[in-house]
Write a structure and sequence with these properties.
alpha+beta, six-stranded antiparallel beta barrel, 22 strands
Length: 574
Amino acid sequence: MDHRDTAPDSWEQEDDVEATIDGQLESAFTTLNVNAKPFVPNVNAAEFVPGFALKTHSENPDCAVAVETISSMEVSESAALMENGDTELSAEEPWDQKEVEPNGDEPGGGSRCPPAATEDTAPEIMEEEEEAPVPKVPPPQPDAPKKEHINVVFIGHVDAGKSTIGGQIMYLTGMVDKRTLEKYEREAKEKNRETWYLSWALDTNQEERDKGKTVEVGRAYFETDKKHFTILDAPGHKSFVPNMIGGASQADLAVLVISARKGEFETGFEKGGQTREHAMLAKTAGVKHLIVLVNKMDDPTVNWSLERYEECREKLVPFLKKVGFNPKKDIHFMPCSGLTGANLKEPTDMCSWYTGLPFIPHLDSLPTLNRSSDGPVRLPIVDKYKDMGTVILGKLESGSIAKAQQLVMMPNRHVVEVLSLLSDDVETEDAGPGENLKLRLKGIEEEEILPGFILCNAENLCHSGRMFDAQIVIIEHKSIICPGYNAVLHIHTCIEEVQITAFICLVDKKTGEKIKPRPRFVKQDQVCIARLRTAGTICLETFKDFPQMGRFTLRDEGKTIAIGKVLKLVAERD
């Protein structure tokens, strides 16, 4: 390159100048700087150093030559590095230059020997610096699509430690470097919130950090030897349950975080606490496997006590059983500490009574999920935005999508083309079921898409409509519910107003048989089949055909009223 060629040339020219002008150091130096050509920065840098070399030349001629050779080596190295665009190393180089130069200014010229040693030590420092950042981000990119994708949603009561555990896992798996966490720790200390710093890896916006509450579903990913995990950090506060439902609808696996601290577990579990509601919503959203992390075991009120762990477990199991989880197959309990990272990646000595695997190895050992990649394409849209075109986010529930594929956006029936495809921020050519995707689409404007719309293939469109029959379980409602009752329907990623227009019959809870036709009302804990009508057209499937798009939740006044499944789609009469 010409940068490298020009540097030595200018040194030779400088030697000639040195021979002619020996006494007028200062004037030569100033004229050089003034006449420096702005469009050739390297010449400028090259002419600067011999100014010092001149001074050393008068004191110790042999050493001046050494200085010239070393500094010329450094200049050529830094030129090469700048071409590569390696900022860390180019920043490292001038320090060596500075060390070389001032030593020449010192009265004793004998101190010019060490530069060679600093040259040797510098590469060692560089090597160490290079080693640390390399494993952090690049390795996941080529491997990301090959490993099995699993979406893990962290749910539980507010302040149970969901974001902190998420941040700790990212640190333990090398997705967040130590320097970033130290920065968060300093900032958190300034706000007198020292224990919050780990959660800042997932709670990125200022409002979430100031209040210490997650609002939107945080996203991050980490990898183990066999699997690629996406963390969905759901908000625990009851005001943000709709966001939590959106997160749970994309998950394959839920982690229910509960706090073992005295008083906190009880608050989260009693009526009005989010532990109950979240577990129920996760089951409704189609999460089959639940890991219960008993967090804050290092708290002084708990101190890794087996009694407290068993007490939390005994209270939770009957409730989780009632929701529909099988305690033997679907639920796994484990103690941990999100703040210290104990029992997340490595087993801890504090907890000798727990013999199972720590959290991350346990996730790795779970059996693979069976997903059909040859089924119809179904991608419920979670979010959309503009970025050099229309970008949509969502989890591919079934089928596979490739670049340049033609798809149909339901219920609008817009034909769109996939321009680019990102799976967990890594660009790929195609994607299979279970992956979290970002698609850039052609043929549709961002304003024409709403969360809850569904991408399908033209050969097999999903059903859409406004009326359907469903089996509903009333979970919590003080008074009776009559036809004409309005609520908010959450089905896959769609949120829509709905009205119960008629009750068809009641269903016996134990036998599942239809008992009383046309009831006038239903009340808490009853199961019924009802006809519902939504305010707008929505995409849905029957539970039998496509479970992910056939189960729903009804909410009203900030509470979950009922859960249900779609039995039949009803065509509207004109």
